[in-house]
Specification:
single chain; alpha/beta; seven-stranded mixed β-sheet; six-stranded mixed β-sheet; 8 helices
């Protein structure tokens, strides 16, 4: 197996929204804001080369939204799915599977694109199976008022209409995990950010690499109370973070950050202040 970071672009979000009740004087230490209180965010996807499979975990915002839409998010930089795949010797037609941690637009918007004359939508990865889970798909397809602006119909319905949608099994009531998904990962299901978000766990170079998605958007979110205002159930997120970070420290997990603009990976350790960051590095350093 080989793992590659794939940057789908960079954008900015309001720092206060990203850290909820945590004072700006604290979160600014790890995530400095600009004059508009916006902090930098990456859309760092994960490419998994496993035998004949080439699996892309998440795919950013895509490029089909309006200029007005993108104007809200201060897009910057030259990175894209295509340029990042090319750096590793691949293109989007090589992708066999698109795995979606959840269906918020900054994670799945690249799944769907316009056709050549912009008359209809089509899958952006024509040869791929798309993977979600039934619980989250139902949640996103009929969104609640709080998440309606994040679950965009044009990102979701065309996947199902294409016939390329597949569901991974959800855990039974005695477990938070499913195993042997796509033959290379097990999944942790968490529900505080949104219903049934999935965090892939991969065995890689004698380490467990975890794609932490929006449970831990950046390394600045490692302290337990540092929870996003976007989370639907923040108290549940706190419990999920505590449980996950205890295990991550005990078992020396490698955390792969999707949204951190500067830190690609880290390990964590137990300290007197709780679980805190230990080492920062890239996948290439493993």
């Amino acid at each position: 197996m080989n793992l590659y970071p794939v940057n789908a672009g960079n954008f900015k979000l309001d720092g206060g929204a990203m850290f909820g009740v945590v004072p700006k004087s604290l979160w600014m230490r790890t995530n400095p804001a600009d004059e508009h209180n916006m902090i930098s965010m990456a859309m760092r996807c994960l490419l998994i080369e496993d035998g004949e499979k080439l699996i892309l975990v998440d795919n950013g915002m895509g490029n089909k939204q309006s200029e007005k839409f993108f104007g809200f998010y201060y897009m910057y930089g030259d990175d894209s799915i295509d340029s990042s795949l090319s750096k590793h010797g691949f293109n989007r037609d090589d992708i066999t599977d698109v795995f979606l941690s959840h269906l918020h637009f900054d994670h799945c918007g690249g799944s769907i694109e316009w056709n050549d004359d912009k008359s209809e939508y089509r899958p952006a990865f024509k040869n791929a199976k798309y993977w979600s889970n039934e619980l989250h798909w139902k949640w996103a397809s009929v969104p609640n008022v709080r998440e309606k602006a994040s679950f965009l119909k044009e990102n979701i319905s065309p996947i199902e209409e294409s016939g390329q949608l597949n569901y991974v099994p959800t855990p039974d009531e005695n477990s938070d995990y499913t195993v042997n998904v796509l033959d290379c990962m097990k999944l942790l299901f968490v529900n505080g950010h949104t219903e049934a978000m999935m965090l892939p766990h991969l065995s890689y170079k004698d380490k467990t690499v975890v794609f932490v998605a929006d449970l831990l958007p950046t390394h600045g979110h490692i302290p337990i109370p540092y929870v996003m205002g976007y989370d639907t159930r923040p108290l549940l997120t706190i419990g999920e973070k505590q449980k996950f970070l205890q295990k991550a420290a005990d078992e020396e997990y490698v955390l792969f950050f999707e949204h951190d603009p500067d830190v690609e990976c880290c390990t964590v350790q137990h300290t007197e202040k709780g679980v805190r960051i230990k080492d920062k590095f890239t996948l290439n350093d493993l």
